């Protein structure tokens, strides 16, 4: 490669103006990674914005959607400021990276870690959307009562002190659980188990909704809820398909396994609803879809199709059992007001997926994903027993269990500390007036302004700013 001309010395060493696509970059992989990242971003906005805004009571539609929208923006600024380097940068501790510059072109235009064939800018964007959706999933447990100012503080604090530790430990090549050989293909531990446990813990500290809301909390628009759920489902193509960091055959397998498991889980949950409640519930089917997507995430590209179907049956039945049966019997579960049941759909399903990964992981597929030629690593227990290497299989199961214990402990402790710190400054829960008034009391805005014979009554405090008429014909 020719030397960089002096006038272009500001560029990274391997990049010169006539080589916008350096020798180390694969344009197909880079294009797929940017596409996959955008699909994951769409899961949050508009996916979860629509899902949250429609699955709650009408008076909480704006607040619930806004919690997701705010978190997406706040996480991005924290991510490029310090979060990415703490999660994937140079080692500071075995579970944390050093805070370093990330927005300089010398960083952004260089090849990313592990000789992956696209630049750091792509990796930063891809990892950002995963961090964002994790925090937004936590919001699902807190809908309908968390003080919005407290939520504004919670997002950067939790991202900084919890998410980065889990991401570095499991996903960064230098992380301690990564070095041990934990299999978390696309975030069963880092994203779903974390958000489920953190959401449940935060819900404990924030406190419950009003008694009226806990007893009756109907969705304000089930059809719109399905639209958000559909975006979430289809966006999972990028969620799991992007994690090989290349447009590979393993990415194709991961995508197919993802949708097979989700469909199987949805049908299993639906059948259980019909069997025990005699009515097919669209909300239940949506929950089954989510648990299937969560369960397959840590295993998507390292298990065979038949294993994905088994995992779908398990993810459609075990979280159903914990939500519909155990939740009514276990004291702690009854005491904590988890609005969207993220403990069951993400903590339980994420744990199930992580353990199933340790059991079903195919060593040949694992080597396709991790690109290592070590037959003693990433061996599922089922294959270890079948191939006469039960010791390797039991070791993998032990590592998976250790990962569960670590993520649960991390999130219970850090989430509790973050909530206790915030409540020293502002209340975690809304005032009684806000809890009764809902969106209008909190934001001065309402999602649905139709009344009477089709007139629109707009009483937003923002009228003078945005030029809305007080009363206008629709």
TrEMBL record:
Topology term for the membrane: Multi-pass membrane protein
Gene Ontology biological process: ammonium transmembrane transport
Keyword Transmembrane: yes
Subcellular location: Cell membrane
Keyword annotations from UniProtKB, A to Z: Ammonia transport, Membrane, Transmembrane, Transmembrane helix, Transport
Major localization class: membrane
Molecular function GO terms recorded: ammonium channel activity
GO CC terms, sorted: plasma membrane
Gene3D superfamilies linked to this entry: Ammonium transporter AmtB like domains
Transmembrane segments: 31-53, 65-84, 124-143, 150-171, 183-207, 219-239, 251-275, 282-300, 306-327, 339-361, 401-426
Protein's UniProt name: Ammonium transporter
Organism in which the protein naturally occurs: Erythranthe guttata
Pfam families per the UniProt record, alphabetical: Ammonium_transp
Family named by the database record: Belongs to the ammonia transporter channel (TC 1.A.11.2) family.
Location of the Ammonium transporter AmtB-like domain: 31-448
């Amino acid at each position: 490669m020719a030397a960089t001309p002096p006038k272009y010395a500001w560029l990274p060493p391997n990049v010169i103006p006539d080589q916008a696509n350096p020798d180390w970059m694969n344009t197909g992989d880079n294009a797929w990674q940017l596409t996959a990242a955008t699909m994951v971003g769409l899961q949050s906005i508009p996916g979860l914005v629509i899902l949250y805004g429609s699955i709650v009571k009408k008076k909480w539609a704006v607040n619930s959607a806004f919690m997701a929208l705010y978190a997406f923006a706040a996480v991005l600024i924290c991510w490029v400021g310090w979060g990415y380097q703490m999660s994937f940068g140079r080692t500071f501790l075995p579970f944390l990276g050093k805070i370093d510059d990330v927005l300089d072109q010398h960083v952004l235009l260089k090849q990313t870690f592990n000789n992956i064939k696209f630049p750091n800018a792509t990796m930063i964007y891809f990892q950002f959307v995963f961090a964002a959706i994790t925090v937004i999933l936590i919001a699902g447990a807190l809908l309908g009562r968390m003080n919005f100012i407290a939520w504004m503080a919670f997002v950067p604090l939790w991202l900084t002190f919890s998410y980065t530790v889990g991401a570095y430990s499991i996903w960064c090549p230098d992380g301690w659980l990564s070095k041990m050989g934990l299999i978390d293909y696309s975030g069963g531990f880092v994203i779903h188990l974390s958000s489920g446990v953190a959401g449940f813990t935060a819900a404990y500290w924030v406190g419950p909704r009003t008694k009226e809301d806990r007893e009756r909390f109907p969705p304000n628009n089930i059809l719109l809820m399905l639209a958000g759920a559909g975006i979430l489902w289809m966006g999972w193509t990028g969620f799991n398909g992007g994690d090989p960091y290349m447009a590979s055959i393993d990415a194709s397998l991961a995508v197919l396994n993802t949708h097979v498991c989700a469909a199987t889980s949805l049908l299993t949950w639906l059948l259980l609803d019909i069997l025990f409640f005699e009515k097919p519930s669209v909300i239940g089917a949506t929950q089954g879809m989510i648990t299937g997507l969560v369960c397959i995430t840590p295993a998507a590209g390292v298990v065979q199709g038949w294993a994905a179907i088994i995992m779908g049956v398990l993810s459609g039945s075990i979280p159903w059992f914990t939500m519909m049966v155990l939740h009514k019997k276990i004291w702690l579960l009854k005491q904590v007001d988890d609005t969207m049941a993220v403990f069951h759909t993400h903590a339980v399903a994420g744990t199930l997926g992580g353990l199933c990964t340790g059991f079903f992981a195919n060593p040949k597929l694992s080597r396709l994903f991790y690109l290592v030629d070590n037959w003693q690593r990433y061996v599922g227990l089922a294959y270890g027993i079948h191939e006469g290497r039960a010791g390797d299989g039991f070791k993998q199961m032990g590592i998976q269990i250790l990962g569960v214990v670590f993520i649960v402990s991390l999130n219970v402790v850090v989430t509790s500390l973050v909530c206790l710190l915030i409540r020293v400054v502002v209340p975690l829960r809304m005032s009684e007036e806000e809890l009764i008034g809902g969106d209008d009391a909190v934001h001065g805005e309402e999602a649905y302004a139709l009344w009477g014979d089709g007139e629109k009554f707009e009483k937003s405090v923002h009228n003078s700013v945005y030029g809305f008429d007080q009363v206008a014909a629709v």
